[in-house]
Specification:
The chain has 434 residues and is an all-alpha fold. It has a single domain (3-406), classed as Growth Hormone, Chain: A, CATH 1.20.1250.20. It has helices at residues 3-23, 30-39, 42-57, 60-67, 74-84, 87-96, 103-135, 138-167, 176-196, 212-225, 227-239, 243-246, 249-256, 263-288, 291-315, 329-352, 358-368, 374-385, 388-406. Helix 3 packs parallel to helix 7.
């Protein structure tokens, strides 16, 4: 088997196992319900999402600068993974042995382990995309990402059924249900790290680590010189306001619309099916029509979620009405959006980067779009002081604005788009990386 084919299969396996593992602690399904049962605080529900976003995004420019001089990036993800990926397994074991009877202790342990997982994910993210871009040719990346999205989606349908049973009336109840979910996540994340160990990283000459002042000048040059990249960041920030309501859709369903907590598993499964549907077509769409088209799909899907939820509130629909079957569309739309964000925004930053600047582009994009950490906390604060209707109306307005802006985004990739020429677009000669 040639190296490129092997790497494609290994990246497919790593991303699939990681993605299925994350389903068991779904940030828009399971974790909000867990924090709500543990504390009853809407602000803390938003904080959990914000902590994840901030912990992995904030350090990325520092990670890029540190790794510039590294000839091999793969070992850095391996080391970070050995620290971070067992985090949820540790939490699951703690719940099995009785930590759940002490809510304050459980909350503190959860926040620490949750934070550690995503703090080290900053290294994970940077290295993964850098090695992926080196190991997989540009014309095949969308296909690999799309195939992984479909595979983990199919597997996650079964995961959704298990979540439904664990959190339903016939399940083991709190905290054992969550102990099982966290444990499964930890095991699958460790298996994904095993798949990562099989990656063959192509050799690439390091460019040397510049002084910090020169490094920040180069970052500024990227923003000044690449209009499409600037637009990509702006659209991500505006459409990222979907985070205002992202953690509260399951709570709206179970606390206001009358859905049983067992439906959390249904919501997770439907979200997964949305991701499958997206993965089936968006990888090919990115290769043929361009990544900018994928981003337009992502922002449209993001906007539909708060619009549908708002219609339920305005019309008085609930779980007992026949049309209540349409509420899960909210989660299907989130699934489409998350898949499209992966194949679109993140992949777009990689596509726009010349080979010598991949780490810089990926880190700069992730750090700037990290301002999306604010909406989940603001959403919890706003919900505590107003209503679901106000929160959803604001979310819908902002995400629709992001969708409108996406139609002004320049071409990124695709057969009709000019390829980025090799070589730096910013002055890199003086400086000797996801």
């Amino acid at each position: 088997m040639d190296v490129q084919r092997r790497n494609a299969l290994v990246f497919f396996g790593e991303a699939t196992l990681f993605g299925v593992g994350v389903v068991f602690i779904g940030f828009t399904t399971v974790l909000p319900q867990f924090v709500s049962e543990l504390t009853g605080s809407t602000v803390l529900v938003g904080l959990v999402i914000a902590l994840a976003e901030g912990a992995w995004r904030a350090p990325q420019l520092a990670v890029v600068w540190w790794l510039l001089a590294a000839r091999r990036k793969k070992p850095w993800l391996t080391r970070a993974g050995l620290v971070a990926r067992p985090a949820y397994l540790v939490l699951g074991i703690a719940l099995w042995v009785g930590a759940g009877s002490h809510p304050a202790l459980t909350l503190g342990l959860f926040l620490v382990l949750h934070g550690i997982m995503f703090l080290f994910l900053s290294v994970d993210h940077m290295v993964w995309w850098d090695v992926f871009a080196k190991a997989i040719p540009a014309g095949r990346r969308g296909r690999v990402l799309g195939a992984s999205t479909v595979a983990r989606g199919v597997l996650a349908v079964g995961a959704g059924g298990l979540i439904t049973w664990l959190l339903g009336e016939g399940g083991p109840g709190f905290p054992r249900a969550y102990a099982a979910l966290f444990s499964l996540t930890g095991i699958l994340l460790l298996l994904s790290l095993g798949s990562w160990s099989l990656v063959v990283e192509p050799d690439e000459e390091p460019v040397g680590r510049p002084p910090l002042r020169g490094y920040f000048e180069q970052l500024a040059a990227v923003l000044r010189g690449n209009r499409t990249f600037r637009s990509l960041v702006v659209i991500r920030l505006v459409s990222g306001c979907e985070g205002l309501a992202l953690g509260f859709y399951p709570l709206l369903g179970t606390q206001v619309l009358g859905f049983s907590p067992a439906y959390i598993g249904v919501f997770a499964a439907v979200q997964t099916v949305g991701g499958i549907a997206a993965g089936l077509g968006l990888g090919l769409l990115s290769e043929r029509a361009g990544i900018h088209r994928v981003i337009q799909v992502a922002t449209a899907a993001s906007a539909s979620a708060p619009v549908v939820a708002l219609l339920f509130l305005w019309t008085g629909l609930n779980a007992h009405h026949l049309l209540g079957l349409f509420y899960p569309w909210v989660f299907a739309a989130i699934g489409v959006s998350l898949s499209a964000n992966f194949i679109g925004f993140a992949n777009g930053a990689v596509e726009l980067a010349p080979p010598g600047e991949r780490g810089m582009y990926i880190g700069l994009f992730s750090t700037l779009s990290g301002l999306a950490v604010l909406p989940p906390v603001l959403g919890g604060w706003l919900l505590a002081r107003t209503s679901y209707a106000t929160l959803l109306a604001l979310t819908a307005s902002l995400v629709l604005l992001g969708h409108a802006l996406s139609w002004r985004l320049g071409p990124i990739g695709g057969r009709a788009s000019p390829r980025v020429r090799p070589g730096p677009t910013a002055p890199l000669q003086s400086r000797a990386p996801r």
